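Ticket #4471: structure export looks truncated?
Reporter: QA, pipeline team
Priority: medium

Steps to reproduce: submit the single chain below to the structure queue and open the exported record.
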Amino acid sequence: MANSERERTADWFRRFASAEVAESPRYRDWALGIANDDQLLALVARLPLSKRQPVLVLTCARVAGVPLRSFETARDDFIALWPAIAKLAKTRATQTNDPRRCTPLLVALDRIRGPIALIEVGASAGLTLFPDRYTYTWNARGRSVTSLPADGPSTVSLVADIAGWGANPPRRPNIVHREGIDLSPLDVTKPSDRDWLEALVWPEQSDRLDIVRAAADIVAQSPPTLTAGDAVAEIRAAVARARKAAPNATIVVSSPAVLVYLDRAEREKFATYCARSKVRWISLDGRRVIPRIGDAADELGIEGDFVLSLDGVPIASTDPLGRQVTVHGGSGLSPEDVDFIEFERENWGPTRSKESLVRKVWNLPLVRYYQRLYGIMESPAARRYDPILVRSFAETSEL
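Actual output as written to the record:
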């Protein structure tokens, strides 16, 4: 095995450890241990390139029986269990599409007229094909927005920090058709697939594991159609099936954090198809995965490493798992301007606790808060956003 392959693998594991230290100290320790171990590096480097992904190797190690101990004490277990680890890596893939990604999905779906036929590429077990079945709590500056399913609170409760959202809860999508596409879809009604899905949750993420388990229960009650195949090869047939099954529905194609796994030419082919096929396309991907989307985000002043886009137009920045979302609307107001307006709507007028609340939420003295608010309310963008509220504010200020 060439030294260059071992060095390439070592660098991959070190970069993984550096990026994910906050998510899993145990996986960081294991990744660094492998990166500095010539014998293990040589074993990992013999795997096909796509099977050397650090999270795949580490998950397979857990499933094969490597105990969750420090690498120093677990190193011999890695060596002894390597045949089982390698066998698992060759037959499995990293494919937990986190239900929390339904938060940015719902932000985009709020802008789409229903009923909806939802097609997801990289669907794994289909946990993000059910955004209408989950409870959402979106925490903004000094306020909270909650959205419940029609039949009451869900066993899956998704909490996120969100900026730039308006006063109303997001609309519940009326989803009348669901299909997922994945190279190796998982069936949550099969114990082996369910065990693998749960194993993909990192060791310290007990809250995430609870969400995955509860979402899997919901999916198991009415399993969606899951098609095995490549996204680019299968998307046309999936769209045709959706049109036949729900002729009056708006077809929405969702690609949450999956296009990065396609080569550049395939990404462009997929994006071009979505643009030309009269579907609505929701993408959640790294900023430069589709370069023109990243360039558009730059022009709109949307920051962050991950961008949510609708039909190729950036509408929000988000973290990869949908735990934080900053929405950019078409009103001309910044997300913080929207949050100022909505905070004032929630806490209208002078109250006994207003000054302490403003200091707590905005870290501003009351005078500075009103100066900022006056500037926002006097803007044409604010009048477009909510002319009645702006007029009421102006009338109150003149008293």
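Status: closed, not a bug. The export was complete when the record was re-opened. Leaving a note from the reviewer for reference: The first strand starts at residue 116 and ends at 121.
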